[in-house]
C-alpha cells in the first residue's frame, strides 16, 4: 500500500511538473503597415475663395488664405493640380487668367516635403499638371496663392472653377 501511495505521489509530482513546463507559449505577431498618402485643404474663411478684380480691367488680384496639408509614408509621390470649370459666365470659354503657386512649403516631419514646380496656369486644358514633385515619406504644408487677372478687353462677369489637388505615385 505504501508503495502504491508513493507511486501515486510521484506520478502526481511528475504530472504537475509537466504541466508547469507548459504554462508559457509563444507565437509570432506580424504588423504590416501599408503605403498611404493623404492631402487636405483648409480654408480659414470657411467657404469658396472669391478673388475680386475691382479696379479697371487689365488689373489683377491675389488670394493666399488657403493652406494645403499632405503626407505619405512612401517615396516618389507628386502633387498635381487641375481645374474643372463650373461656371464660365455663359459664353463657353475661360475669359480670366487664374494661376496658383504653392508658397512657403514647410516640412513638419519626415524626409522630403517636395519641391514646388512654380506657378501653374489653370487654363481649362484637361488633365492634371505637376504642382509639387518629389514627396518622400513626409508630412508637410504650404499656402496656396491664387492670382487672377483680367485684360482690358474682358467684359465684366464671373467664372467659377473647381480646383482639384491630388497626391499620387
Number of DSSP-assigned strands: 8
Helix content: 10-25%
CATH class group: Mainly Beta
Count of discrete domains: 1
Quick one: overall form? elongated
CATH topology: Immunoglobulin-like
Examine the secondary-structure arrangement and name the CATH architecture: Sandwich
| Biggest β-sheet description | 8 strands, antiparallel
Average predicted confidence as pLDDT: 78
Q: Give me the Rg, rounded.
A: 32 Å
Structural class: mainly beta
Q: Which segments are poorly predicted (pLDDT under 50) over 5 or more consecutive residues?
A: 1-11
Approximately how much beta-strand content do the residues carry? over 45%
Order of helices and strands: HEEEEEEEE
Number of helices: 1
Distance between the termini: 81 Å
List keywords for this structure.
mainly beta, 169 residues, eight-stranded antiparallel β-sheet, Immunoglobulin-like, 8 strands, 1 helix
Question: How would you summarize what this structure contains?
Answer:
The chain is mainly beta and 169 residues long. Strands 1, 2, 3, 4, 5, 6, 7 and 8 form an eight-stranded antiparallel β-sheet that branches.
